[in-house]
């Protein structure tokens, strides 16, 4: 009840200048992944679900007036699955530091793995590239904007390269109290388009996919990321040009980030 009274009595915030505050924060991340693949012969889709839990430390350092150095350190990571199968060994990731540069409002300047990085490290960089929500320099209730990103990854499984385009619409739907702090509530909706090509068994193999992103994120008015809940759904179809489309697969990822 006390929390509700504080929320109702707090005066609405007008638009104000926003920037992330340099400092160190820790977060718990839980990602539940559901993979479903169609099967031929009228059989039920094959499913493989697992949950990844992580604790990370995020450090922001002022480099210049318009640049922050971003370091993400993997403190712990584990994966659980209901399947009676060996767990994926993620011990290699513990202690790994991911580094990059962002603007004071969270726009990515650089967040790329070293040229010598293997597929595991490249995937880790990809997973944390948009960890900090990118906002605008002036933020207030009703502020809205769109972000478009295009990326081309290196070899992924049988595919020599995969191109991904994301278009995300963001809107500040109001100010609230979250995790004990005055915060902006940001709703995000978006679309994903993916395509790639490689070889399998000496034949050309293509992949195409489309997906959606829906979620809500919270950032304190003093410039600290306070967490999020996001759902991403992706449908993929692999095909050989001479035989047509193969079975489709759907991946649903539900993630939650909370500050510690």
What does this protein look like?
This protein is mainly beta and 260 residues long. It has one domain: Roll (Lipovitellin-phosvitin complex, beta-sheet shell regions). The chain is 7% helix and 62% strand. The strands form 2 sheets. The chain has an 11-stranded antiparallel sheet. It has a two-stranded antiparallel ribbon with strand order 1-7. The relative contact order is 0.17. Residues 1-11 have low confidence and may be disordered.
Helix content bin: under 10%
Task: Report the CATH architecture.
Answer: Roll
**Biggest sheet, open or closed, and with what strands and sense?**
11 strands, antiparallel
- Share of β-strand residues: over 45%
Number of domains: 1
- Write the H/E string, N to C: HEEEEEEHEEEEEEE
Please state the overall shape, judged from the principal axes of the Cα atoms: globular
What is the residue-mean pLDDT, rounded to a whole number?
A: 87
Summarize this entry quickly:
The protein has helices spanning 2-9, 119-128; strands spanning 16-17, 23-37, 46-64, 67-80, 97-102, 108-110, 138-139, 144-153, 159-178, 181-200, 203-220, 225-240, 244-259. The chain is mainly beta.
Highlighted features:
260 residues; mainly beta; Lipovitellin-phosvitin complex, beta-sheet shell regions; eleven-stranded antiparallel sheet; two-stranded antiparallel ribbon; 2 helices; 13 strands
């Amino acid at each position: 009840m006390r929390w509700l009274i504080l929320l109702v009595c707090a005066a609405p915030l007008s638009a104000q200048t926003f920037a992330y505050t340099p400092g160190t924060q820790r977060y718990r991340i839980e990602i539940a992944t559901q993979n479903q693949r169609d099967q031929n012969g009228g059989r039920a889709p094959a499913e493989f679900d697992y949950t990844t839990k992580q604790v990370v430390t995020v450090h922001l350092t002022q480099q210049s007036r318009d640049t922050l150095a971003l370091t993400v350190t993997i403190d712990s990571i584990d994966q659980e699955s209901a399947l009676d199968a060996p767990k994926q060994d993620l011990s290699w990731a513990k202690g790994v530091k991911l580094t990059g540069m962002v603007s004071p409002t969270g726009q990515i300047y650089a967040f790329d793995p070293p040229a010598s990085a293997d597929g595991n490290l490249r995937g880790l960089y990809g997973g944390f590239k948009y960890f900090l929500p990118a906002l605008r320099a002036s933020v207030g209730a009703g502020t809205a904007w769109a972000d478009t990103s295009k990326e081309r990854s290196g070899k992924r499984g049988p595919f020599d390269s995969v191109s991904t385009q994301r278009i995300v619409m963001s809107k500040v739907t109001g100010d609230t109290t979250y995790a004990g702090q005055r915060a902006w509530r940001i709703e995000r909706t978006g679309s994903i388009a993916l395509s790639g090509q490689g070889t399998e068994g000496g034949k050309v193999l293509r992949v195409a996919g489309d997906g959606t992103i829906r979620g809500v994120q919270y950032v304190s008015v003093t410039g600290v990321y306070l967490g999020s809940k996001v759902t991403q759904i992706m449908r993929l179809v692999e095909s050989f040009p001479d035989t047509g489309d193969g079975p489709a697969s759907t991946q649903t990822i539900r993630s939650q980030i909370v500050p510690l």
